[in-house]
Amino acid sequence: VSAQVREVAPGSSSLAGSRFLTWLANPWGKARFLWVIAIAYVIWTLLPVAIAVLFSFNATRALTAWQGFSTRWYVGDVSSVWNDPELHSALLQSLKLSGLVVLIAVPLGVAFALALDRWRGRGSGTANFVMLFSFITPEIAIGVALLLFFTRVFTTVGLGFTAQVLGVSMYMMAYPVIIVRARLLSIGADYEEAAMDLGASPTQAHRDRVRGDDRQLRDLPAAVGQRGEPDDPDLDLQRRAARRAPIGERARDADADRVDDPDRARGPDLSAFHPR
Amino acid sequence: VASEARAAGRVPAQTGGGVWFPSWFWPSFAAPASIWLIVLFVVPFYVILSIAFGAVDPIFLTPEPVYNPVGWDASSFVRVASGFTTAGSIYQGALLHTAVFVAAATALCLVIGYPVAYFIARHAGRFRAVFLVALIAPFWISYMMRMLAWINLLQPDGYVNQLLEKLGVIDQPVQWLNGKPVTVIFGLAYGYVPYMILPLFAFLDRISTSSLEASRDLGAGPAATFRRVTLPQSRQAILAGIVIVMLPMFGDYFTTALLASTRNTAMIGSLIVSSMGSSLVQEGASLVLLLLLALIAPMLYYLRSTTRAVEGATL
């Protein structure tokens, strides 16, 4: 720590600046240099989003100058979320999509995690591998694969809402699997064995273990599935950006219209499969 | 004992807790998800293969998937692959941009992420929970929202230029969104740095304080302790973090599309996206295959290290 700090100390020009750097570099104090970095990091990550949220309450359309508080972009204005039918339906579409995806991905994922926790026979390794592979494959590859699948093979479904639900639920399924499985592994089978030794039936024992220790964890993927939020830093498994749904696409298109660049190569809409 | 052995995968489940269940019972739980994966993941990938190696309709010039590997024709795949080695081609340009952007952004993630993770693991004290919440918060905000936030800030009259002008760094507004590679690199780093920090933190947090104290007792200063104890022990975490941010960055088309989207910032992802909408579907499918081929080593490394972590969790 202090080694990093000492490099900073020389090279200060003004008196106040040098005093600040001496204070910063004091090796007997707290790790001030790291405090500064960490606080700067938090500001850097969160402030832009906070500003964007703030500007959604701006009184005018301006994106770079604050002109007073107003809720007109939510309710009231013709192009507010409440009044613009397009925004309205995009919002509903997002909610519908994420709701359905949670309803499909969480039960499938939890059942899969329970199965992998118990079933060590032939095939379980492959199943686990394929699941994890779907989790780390770059989204664009999955998007292209599903696009070609639904436009060339599974044409009875074709592109649209059903395809969206199917594709996103497959891609999101790994989150509940990873979270529940990690938790089951850390609980271990001991509780269940103890319960059976004490006379509980296997079903009872399993239920009690899962209900008792896992309640939060079974709820967590549901809460998390909507955002695709990974958890449990102990397992180094978190790596994905929060998923976004059509409301985001809508916003992106709005933005794309604003920047008029002749070179802008606007590709086709992979959004049906590509939650980003 | 039985459960430990079972967790390590040596003994089938029948000797563990599942003794009263028929052998098909637990596998049947995996069936629905497995069907989902086969139909929506494995089969679609086979479709990519059969289009990349498939034929082209002579009249409509649309790709015709060939499902039988015997009839596969690699000419389109080879054409795309050789495009990467042709100087000045659009493929080579995209490959170069992707490599440079990903390398720079990954390095930036590490340089920013390591001190932050180190700080939270060691020095945050009673503010640790607050910092952890701040670390996790970006995961709850959509990537898209976070990029859009920067678009506003980076406008010619946006806050970034205003700030830089006030500080006297620049005299006139910088056109950040006009296809500047540096904007894309910062965008990528901004988007993915949380994924670097969390595994680093989890790892640094597990380094026992006794080995640090031992190092100090044996006369090493803080810098030497860091260099000779902490850094070697976190090498694995650094590698994992690099792979975690690198994999999605290689497939990213979104950041460059939003923050730059000119030809001189096009990445491989951008090529794939634009080829899907044109008559170049076959080229797009080949590009996806090449991308996966390039990423297979880091992907397998990641799978191996996480599987080990999962199994290690029970021991």
Keywords, please?
heterodimer; A: 276 residues; disordered N terminus; B: mainly alpha; 14 helices; 2 strands; 69% helix; globular
Terminal residue distance of chain A = 39 Å
Q: Using only CA atoms, what is the Rg of chain A?
A: 25 Å
Determine the structural class of chain A based on helices, strands and strand pairing.
mainly alpha
Radius of gyration of chain B: 25 Å
Number of strands of chain A: 0
Q: If you average the pLDDT of chain A, what whole number results?
A: 72
- Helix share bin of chain B: 55-70%
Report the biggest beta sheet of chain A as strand number plus sense, adding barrel if it closes: none
Query: How does the overall form of chain A come out from the CA principal axes?
Result: extended
Quaternary organization: heterodimer
Question: What does this molecule look like?
Answer:
The complex is a heterodimer of chains A (276) and B (315). The model of chain A is unreliable at 1-12 and 223-276 (pLDDT under 50). With 276 residues, chain A is mainly α. Chain A is built from eleven helices and no strands. In chain A, 41% of the residues are buried. Chain B has helices at residues 2-7, 25-52, 75-83, 90-122, 128-140, 143-153, 159-166, 181-204, 209-217, 222-233, 235-250, 254-259, 268-276, 281-312, and strands at 55-56, 63-64. In chain B, strands 1-2 form a two-stranded antiparallel ribbon. In chain B, strand 1 and strand 2 form a beta hairpin. In chain B, helix 2 (25-52) packs antiparallel against helix 14, helix 4 runs antiparallel to helix 11 and helix 9 packs antiparallel against helix 10 (222-233). Chain B is globular and about 75 Å long. Chain B starts with a helix and ends with a helix.
